[in-house]
Amino acid sequence: MAKEYDLVILGGGPGGYVAAIRASQLGLKTAIVEKQKLGGTCLHKGCIPSKSLLRSAEVYQQTLHSSDYGIIANEIALDFSKVQARKNGIVTSLYKGIQHLMKKGKIDVYEGIGRILGPSIFSPMPGTISVEMNDGSENEMLIPKNVIVATGSRPQSLPGLEIDGTQIISSDEALELENLPESIIIIGGGVIGIEWASMLSDFGVEVTVLEYASTVLPMEDQEITKELQRLLKKKKVQIVTNAKVLAETCERSNHGVSITADVKGEKRTFTANQLLVSVGRKANVEGIGIENTEIVLRNGVIETNAFYQTKESHIYAIGDCVGGLQLAHVASHEGIIAVDHIANLQPYALNPLQVPKCVYSSPEVASIGLTEADAKEKGYNIKVGKFSFKGIGKAMVLGDSNGFVKIIADQDSDDILGIHMIGPHVTDLISEAGIAKVLDATPWEISHTIHPHPSLSEAIGEAALAVDGRALHS
């Protein structure tokens, strides 16, 4: 028997389940169809497990250098099985939390593969969802007034470098490693590649990063990436930029894998135990019935308007499957906007320049708004303030004073255009910058915000003062 809903969501990741909670708050009868586990890639194969491993790597390094703090520790050893067990425990706990939230919101969860049907006996419009249940039971038919597609993405591979799960892996397989390799080649110096490079290096793995662009994290401010590369190289991470990987040269043996890259016209061969392909993610848009609708796919992602409506006005799409900034917090925010639009609440469209971006490497990187190069390209007359963590007492106390905060402002209007950070705990500090952008703050306003002493946040206040040449501690 078909079941009717106000909203059915395909995908239970951070976009889908947050949208479901918001819909429940608004009194909409809601269901989620999830083919694996609630929480999606973020919880099970991305954000949370990788950050757990990064934290273990950080603690390991701190322990190795504990004598710097007057703590003498003998026989320091890494038990990677316990590292993985801790990660799995965190994921399991959070998974149970999401399940509880679904019950609390009276949100029905169907475990299976959902497909959008075209016009049928159930509805004159496309949008009925046929659910192929994981338990092998008869398909469920869901008839919603509205649909949100939140099917996420998966790791992209390179032709000729197909993932075999052992010698050539993606981040999915890397998260399940039982033993650390002695050496690894990472193809791709984007966010995921850099986080893995940092983590594995801190665990003692010999790491080589091959990046096609002229710098790692090519979307970040150039001064930030220059500092990041310097600090990673200091940790003995080999970073090779302008590297065009020649997939056809890949050779596998019992000892490992080798591959050649064209580096500014010079052929260079690299060898390691494993090769991690980290060249972006591909939207999951296949097998969900899009061909039964008027939904438009462009460049492999679903096309929507500013409120995430597709060409079928009652079908919305959010998260990685629509492209843009493929971040968990973006997917969640998009889900809220879509649901509020369904409920006729007239939400504000998402402004990409108000989205904080974080890289959880060591050192951490965080940013919001325009880079200096972007601001100049757009014709702004800019002024820039920077302040090093070396001038911050709390950073010295932590034993990590590398990095800086950089604020870019409009010389004419004094509006903040972008804030960029590299250094200790900047993925937490970036929230102040986020508020500043939402409130259209000026450097003067940030500098007149009282920052507690000693705290890392003092670097933001000093950078704001530095915009007008008034920094107090430099």
Please give a quick description of this structure.
This protein has 474 residues and is an alpha/beta fold.
Fraction of residues in β-strands: 25-35%
Total separate domains: 3
Euclidean distance between termini CA atoms: 71 Å
Structural class: alpha/beta
| Quaternary organisation of the protein chains | single chain
Describe what this molecule looks like in 3D.
It is a single chain. With 474 residues, the protein is of the alpha/beta class. The chain has three domains: 3-154 and 282-342, 3-Layer(bba) Sandwich (FAD/NAD(P)-binding domain); 157-279, FAD/NAD(P)-binding domain; 363-466, FAD/NAD-linked reductase, C-terminal dimerisation domain (Enolase-like, domain 1, 2-Layer Sandwich), CATH 3.30.390. It contains 13 helices and 23 strands. It is globular.
Structure characteristics:
474 residues, alpha/beta, FAD/NAD(P)-binding domain, Enolase-like, domain 1, five-stranded parallel β-sheet, 23 strands, globular
List the helices and strands and how they pair.
Blueprint: E1 3-10, H1 16-25, E2 30-34, H2 40-45, H3 47-64, H4 80-104, E3 108-116, E4 129-133, E5 140-149, E6 153-155, E7 168-169, H5 171-174, E8 183-187, H6 191-202, E9 206-210, H7 222-234, E10 238-240, E11 243-253, E12 256-263, E13 266-272, E14 274-277, E15 281-283, E16 297-298, E17 301-302, E18 315-317, H8 328-342, E19 357-359, E20 364-369, H9 372-377, E21 382-388, H10 393-398, E22 404-410, E23 416-423, H11 426-438, H12 443-447, H13 458-466
Parallel strand pairs: 1-2, 1-5, 2-3, 5-18, 7-14, 8-9, 8-14, 9-10
Antiparallel strand pairs: 3-4, 4-5, 6-15, 11-12, 12-13, 16-17, 19-20, 20-23, 21-22, 22-23
Helix pairs in contact: 1-8, 3-4, 3-6
